[in-house]
Give the backbone structure.
Amino acid sequence: MVVFRKRLLLGLSFAILAIFFFLWPELSTMLKGTHPSTVSAQQACTVLSDPKNLPSPVLINFDTLPNAKVIGTSYKPSFGVTFEDSRLTQAIIYGNEPAQAKSAPNVAVNNASSGTSAGVPMNITFDTPKTHVGFWIGNGSGQQLTALVRAYDANNGLLCEARYVNVPDPHTTFVGFSYIEAFISRVSIDYGDTAISESIDDLYFSPGAGVLPTRTPAPTWTPIPTAIPTAGPTPTATSVVPMIAYQPFVPNPQISPIILPDFAIHGIEITQGIQCFNTGSGLAGCPDNSLPVVNKKDSSARIYLKANNGFSVINNIPVRLFIRANSVWYTTNASGKTTTAINQILNDSANVWFNVNFNSNVVVDFYAIVDPDDLYAEANETNNRFPAGTGYITLTFQSRKTFDIVGQRLRYHPSGYSGTQYAGGWAVNGGAADWLEQVLPIRNNGINYSIKSGYLNWTTSLGSGDGQHALIQTLNSQWLLENLFSWWFSGPFTGARHVYGWAPSAGYTGGHADMPVYPHAGGLGVVGIGSDAPGTNTDNPGSGALIFGHELVHDYNLYHTNTADACGSNDGNSNFPYSNSSIQEVGYNPITGKIYDPALTHDLMSYCPSGGSKQGWIAPFTWNSMFGNIAPAVALATYTSTSAPPMTLYLTGAGESLQVNATIFNPAYSPSSPGKLGNLYKTQGGIGYSLPAGDYSVELRDVGGTALASHSFVVNFESEYDAQSGTPVTGAPTPGVNSAPPFPPTPTTQVDVSFIVPWVPGTTSIALMNGTQLLDQIFVSLNVPQVFFTSPNGAEDWLAGSTHTLTWDGFDLDSDPLSYSLFYSYDGGATWDLLASEISTSSLDVLTDSLAGSSDIRFRVVVTDGVNTSQDETDETISVPNKLPTATILSPLLNEAYLPGGLVVLNGIGVDLEDGTLPDENLFWSSNRQGSLATGPSVGLNSLLPGWHTITMTVVDLHGALASSSVQIFIGYRNHLPLIRK
């Protein structure tokens, strides 16, 4: 945190103290309460907790101004908004901590004079009164601050007032007001008597300054009251490091009192799925517990016990695990079986589930003591501790960034195909994302998975590499278009790290990625495609989830395993370091306690898991690689087009931008055309996205043909598939025969590219070049095309199950061929989804049930003549029903038996079409016998009563709509009838 945000109250002048004295009566009214509580608000005032409650809002996200700039009147010309800039205080831009912003990188902070904001609020004034104002607050710094937020009329009369306790450090609490008359002329934010500065992000207000169409006011939805599961015992507060033994300790009375045993510990394995341990049987060059670990992720300590002095195997020996994090010790008791040697494949160890629930990096110490309470007499009582003496196993649990994955469902109907057309099911609804989250080094609920509105209409067969490349290129182009137009329409980028195209398994059983090293379809490292084949739980994810993980990991340039036993996942460029595709070390699922035998389990970059001949998990090499790839995020930076790093969205400072789409044909196949430009899109706003430099380029030229700017890019026709030499193996799809790759290892016929460059004023043509050879050229028309919606042209309520046809008219004075893209907003214009692009007709059918719901949805149609663009928006309110979320349980497993007092991990995901992955606090677990159990995506329990339980996970979306899923489990000891022989 920067110094000025946490300055101490030192060096204040008496003059400033006097000012504070006169302000103190206002501050003295601040009392702690619930979040939020309104005080002295007029009846016409309503407190808002969600930006979706603002009709047709205008957004200021503070990301277009440079760091440390005084805001003052910067937004007055365009928005009519002024931030106080006086001797007492001034609001400035702060961009040093993008991870704390609601929309990275910048926030607005109150920079009061004399080094403190105590008693000096942030003030925001509007030129014209508003009905709705809201923003996100943060910078609480763990100080349990209370924010006093007020709205005033033009005469400084108080209209609304609310208090928000426990201001968070990240900007995650939304505060706002609505007033039935347009009276709000000023708002103030005050954190009270503290040195910590007030801080906001993403200022919303309405009505705007004529930037959006006038529309009939739409009623905002009233949230449905949340149905709380039947009350059970009051839950115990969750520990910062919760710990539960997988099996309860049961004293063992069978130890001989004549010969005394000698208990000790072989070692302790700390795993989050895979770990280097026991170099004698695993990787010889990988020291014990040397793989990195992640905070906020389910973890396990496997404690391997031994008995000396003539004993070998003894059951139910007690052990106590000690964990120290942030100077606090945590302990729990477990039990296991003593063995003469470590055998990780057997479930003999004493296992403890835990979660290092810290937001930032934290050093954690571990040690264990066998027979800690001296229940058994031993021949040697001095060797019960591991590590011996006063030592510890010390690991740093590190933060990794979270990221967004958007699922794009296909309507798949190529010629001759008669199977299921619409993708969906367990994997699509969140099961695949939750499984991948468990396999990768990322925190619980660290993948924000959402399903995109609508279905992508796809009529090209995915049975060939060319068809798959075409789909990937389409998704790449749409991802760039969404970011390009989102920046123009509303300011923020979409935020999606990945887009995954789901095809129905009846028509496509494989998968494909867009590796940057093989840029046949763009090489952006964003898109993957695959089958929607379902799974059932975390240990049986199905081929759809396995392919999902395989392809998205490819996007980080991780190759196939390329071993003789890899079922055809071949690639001569692979750097997979092992001689076979095994996970090499013993895998362990901390959620279910399942052990993954490396002899039966392949790394997820092998084809065998999705084919069913091997289980799929993760090897140390892949774990380490992905740990580095998902390091904490950095701020969105500003670059020139020549200095920008490739494959990164960046700000340019230019007034306009151009998205380029091009196809390069492989000269080895003697094509009739060496290359061509596709539709280009010139828009407002300065953003860019560069590709690695190469021999090909796009030039922006002036009227004389001189290049005003040139942007080079690389082209690579090399196949990502490779013939595999080596010993034939059993376990491939054809036993005893070395499997061939799914497509011939021949070079591809074409490469498609998409990128965004700054527009240069004076450009009259765009040229596609290979060195000095001109491949294609598009001239900029003098006239911008126009487009207008013709339907819908009034307010409408769309019913569930209905289909509607959107129509528009487009024209161009230059008679250029026109192409259209259709965008959709379900949050009043704050964000926009691309429903379809490259539309050559003037209409599109949309299924109401495929759209995220809202009381105020909007469509925008964008037209391009090949370069120039314009757009139109629907003018009246359209209402689409809110969609129920989906609840997917990955653990516990159906009909699984657990010992009384043993660990049961409740793990699942809630996904909503409107809200994406639902936050931790919106997932509720209950038992039909014990009522409410816990809240969150992954919770460990050992308090379930003996007998059968129906465990239900209820998820609640942000509008209060409910969905649930249930499994039955048994707590107790299975009784087996004796065998009676006749």
The chain has six domains: 3-206, 243-398, 403-629, 649-726+739-779, 786-880, 886-971.
